[in-house]
Design brief:
heterodimer; A: alpha+beta; Uridine Diphospho-n-acetylenolpyruvylglucosamine Reductase, domain 2; Alpha-Beta Plaits; 5-stranded antiparallel sheet; B: alpha/beta; 24% helix; globular; binds flavin-adenine dinucleotide; transport (chain B); electron transport (chain B)
Chain lengths: 479, 275
């Protein structure tokens, strides 16, 4: 039983329900890691609290016995944040999934942090409302994990990050104190907004046990389009048009931002990505000829005639070379599969090394040119699969293992390549992690995005809230 | 070759959970539903397009495809989508769903066939809302035309179609002389299911129904879409089918969590009794 103090275990046995702690080998393997497969799981035990009070008493006990803790949600994280590889106690929120009634007037709902993202959607949909935090892992990810990673997704361009949709939090601090921040208030200008400290803290500052979520109405009718464009400059030129909702089309006679539709997703991918999806899954290119770049665009409540007029003007102005508009929901789903299937298909057809970077949109062209140049010079012959939430300046850079390198050789060289890529990110004023967080995986590179003064401040906050360094030790920052 | 394709719109099964039945239970409330073409009718349209083109150069049409639907004004959206996908002409018979049954649709289609004189009438084997599976057969009977149902493959011959039907344990191949009625099954959109006389036997189609290209969507606005009154097609608009009541399916029971594989096996054996 990998080193948890006897006195600690005895206290757990005495003060908590019999099924509170698991030392089962299957549980240790399952709950010891997230979606990443880089580190071997090796937790000391798994705790399954049911209430905030249990979490509070547990952390007080951990503090007394200096037991390190890894908060654990749906374990779909992509940065190793929920990995317990050094005998830590994993605190799983799996049993804390209660959802309160939807407040129709306030447009809010209070849930326990273990509530699964998709369950929250279903809970609110009955009232015509939704919590617009949405991505492929929503069937497993939890509200607490979403908040702790400030998760993004494909609808960020419309709704923003998780941060925008959290009104109040209940957090258990390292010493067991229970903190209520924010409440259910949209407006609360009473000094520092402590809530924001915990959003995106990846389990290093406290365990989130409950949250009051801000809701919005379910989206109206969604239309999905796929465009073929010649190059990245074309992707960006089309984006400039799209984000104005079609108001820039000649003859539209509309104010910018008052076009006939609202963009809810603007995603791009390259032919190389589509090729990998086609190799892995039974999908086809819906367009009659392949293109180097594709854009998937989703729009809400489009005025159909105006949307079609806008599309016609794109052809006239040679902004796109081809495209299709889904005629109904199954076709829309098929178009989305081309984009959402990429991540999985890259892993199924090869060994991808993933980076998730963000850049100011105005820097994207220069960055991508630099990336091409870098790889042509230093890593010739490596296949790069580019895709991402381009409307947010978010680029997924996937480098595929060349056949002539072993796995170990490849991983060693990608570490080197990461330094090169991140130096380029820094030169273009970007971020080395757009959505996925830092966790264990990107820790070595944090300095490319955050200045020494920022890192010092982050350390000071950590020390204030967790002086013993027991909460998710070694994540984001080394002690 | 000239082909008439019957297209029906159905409530989108993806939001079928929004289908409401009023307490009286005597009808289905369709307010607020999203619609899509009956999938089998979409397959019929795809088959019709394949039969009227050379698969290698589909832009040059080699025949005519006329789509027809029965419904109110907003069903023209379904027809526009079909025109965008490649159909040449569209006809809407103006009527609402509650005033229709399979027999009436077949009677009206018969009159339309007599006007349009197609070589083939293609439609889905059934509509996925009512699952009646009868319009194609009734129409063939009224016209006294040859018929092939549940087509999985169609190959054009001079004056005839060779139709493959998947039956238990094999494939039955029918040769129907034209004009004829053919209803299609889902395999009809596989890559090597349909060959016109023009398409080389080595040609492979993309699997599934083709997408409408944006330029074609724009061009479809200029394609002819005619409205016809039901009364102009049949004097007898009486209904043979009356619905006694509708019931939603029973709510699904919540799932359970099993402890381990042994527990799962035990439950499959003792409770679900599937092992
Ligand atoms: C297929 C797939 C697609 C994805 N797509 C996206 C995407 O589009 N955008 C995006 O941003 N992410 C995406 N992700 C990453 C991931 O799903 C999200 O980051 C998600 O928010 C993680 O939630 P989780 O509950 O699984 O957290 P976990 O993986 O369990 O934990 C993540 C981090 O949060 C901490 N944590 C978890 N619960 C709590 C809590 N209650 N209190 C304090 N700390 C806690 C953990 O310690 C860890 O550091 C994707 C993942 C997969 C597998
Ligand atoms: C007629 C009227 C209507 C108003 N309506 C609204 C309203 O609808 N909503 C609303 O929220 N407020 C409203 N206010 C309040 C006020 O205008 C806003 O709060 C505004 O943001 C204050 O800006 P200021 O530059 O005047 O700040 P100041 O009054 O100069 O300063 C406000 C605070 O900010 C600090 N501060 C100022 N500049 C800096 C800086 N550069 N760096 C760090 N700290 C700084 C000051 O030390 C002070 O604590 C209204 C005020 C008036 C007179």
């Amino acid at each position: 039983m990998a080193g948890l103090p006897e006195a600690f275990l005895a206290a757990i046995q005495a003060d908590f329900p019999p099924d509170f702690l698991s030392l089962d080998a299957g549980d240790l393997a399952t709950f010891g890691r997230d979606w990443t497969k880089v580190h071997a799981p090796s937790p000391g035990a798994i705790a399954f609290p049911r209430t905030t009070d249990e979490v509070s008493r547990l952390l007080r006990l951990c503090s007394a016995h200096a037991v390190p803790v890894v908060p654990s949600g749906g374990r779909t994280g992509l940065a190793g944040g929920a990995v317990a590889a050094r005998g830590e106690l994993v605190v799983s929120l799996d049993r804390m999934r209660h959802m309160g009634p939807v407040d129709m007037l306030g447009g809010t709902v209070r849930v326990q942090a273990g509530a699964v993202t998709e369950a929250v959607h279903q809970h609110c949909a009955a009232q015509g409302l939704t919590w617009p935090v949405d991505f492929a892992s929503k069937g497993s990810s939890q509200v607490g994990g979403n908040i702790a990673t400030n998760a993004g997704g494909v609808k960020v361009i419309r709704y923003g990050l998780t941060r925008q949709w959290v009104l109040g939090l209940q957090v258990v601090l390292a010493n067991g104190d229970v903190l209520e921040v924010g409440g259910a208030l949209e407006k609360n200008n009473t000094g520092l907004d402590l809530r924001q400290l915990f959003i995106g803290s990846e389990g290093t500052l406290g365990i989130i046990t409950e949250a009051t979520l801000k809701l919005t109405r379910l989206p109206g009718h969604l239309d999905v389009l796929l465009f073929a464009v010649a190059d990245l400059a074309g992707v960006l030129a089309l984006f400039r048009e799209a984000r104005m909702g079609g108001a820039l089309a000649p003859g539209a006679g509309l104010e910018p931002g008052h076009g006939p539709f609202t963009v809810t997703a603007y995603e791009f991918f390259t032919e190389r990505c589509l090729d990998r999806v086609k190799r892995h899954r039974k999908v086809r290119n819906p367009l009659s000829a392949p293109s180097d770049y594709y854009v998937l665009m989703e729009v809400e409540n489009a005025h159909r005639d105006a949307l079609e007029a806008w599309v016609a003007s794109l052809f006239e102005r040679e902004l796109v070379t081809d495209g299709t508009l889904a005629q109904h929901s199954s076709q829309a789903a098929e178009l989305w599969t081309l984009r959402e299937g990429i991540s999985e298909s890259l892993s199924a057809t090869g060994l991808p090394h993933k980076n998730d970077v963000a850049l100011p949109i105005s820097e994207l062209s220069g960055f991508c040119a630099g990336l091409d140049d870098l790889f042509a010079r230093r890593y010739p012959g490596w296949e790069i699969c580019l895709f991402g939430h381009i409307g947010d300046g978010n680029l997924h850079i996937n480098v595929m293992k060349p056949d002539d390198l072993t796995r170990e050789q490849f991983l060693a060289r990608t570490h080197e390549a990461d330094h090169d890529i991140f130096a380029l990110v820094k030169a273009h004023h970007g971020s080395i992690s757009a959505e996925h967080g830092i966790g264990l995986l990107k820790k070595d590179f944090l300095g490319y995005t955050r200045a020494p003064a920022e890192l010092a401040l982050m350390r000071a906050v950590k020390r204030t809230l967790d002086p013993q360094g027991l909460l998710n030790p070694g994540k984001i920052l080394d002690a | 070759m000239k082909i008439l394709v019957a297209l029906k719109r159905v409530a989108d099964p993806d939001n079928a959970n929004k289908v409401k039945i009023p307490p009286s239970g005597d009808r289905i409330d369709t307010a607020g539903l999203e619609w899509k073409p009956n999938p089998f009718d979409e397959y019929a349209l795809e088959a019709a397009l394949r039969l009227t083109e050379d698969g290698k150069a589909p832009k040059a049409r080699a025949g005519e495809v006329v789509v027809v639907t029965f419904g109110p004004k907003e069903t023209e959206q379904t027809l526009r989508a079909a025109l965008a996908t490649g159909a040449d002409r569209a006809i809407r018979v103006d009527v609402t769903d509650d005033k229709l049954d399979g027999a009436l649709v077949a009677r009206a289609l018969k009159a339309l066939v007599e006007r349009e004189k197609p070589d083939v009438v293609l439609m889905g084997k059934q509509a996925v809302d009512g699952d009646s599976n009868q319009v194609g057969q009734s129409l063939a009977e009224l016209l006294d035309w040859p018929m092939a149902t549940f087509a999985a493959t169609i190959q054009e011959e001079q004056g005839a179609l060779l139709v493959g039907r998947e039956v238990d344990g094999g494939v039955a191949v029918l040769r129907v002389r034209l004009p004829a009625v053919v209803t299609v099954d889902l395999r009809i959109v596989a890559p090597t299911s349909v060959y016109s006389l023009k398409t080389a036997r080595t040609h492979k189609y993309n699997d599934g129904v083709r997408f409408a290209a944006l330029p074609a969507i724009m061009a479809s606005k200029k394609k002819p879409l005619a409205e016809v009154k039901l009364a102009d097609l049949t004097a007898d608009s009486g209904l043979k089918v009356q619905y006694h009541g509708f019931e939603p399916p029973p709510a699904r029971k919540a799932g359970i969590k099993v402890k381990d594989v042994a527990d799962l096996v035990a439950r499959l054996k003792n409770e679900a009794k599937v092992l």
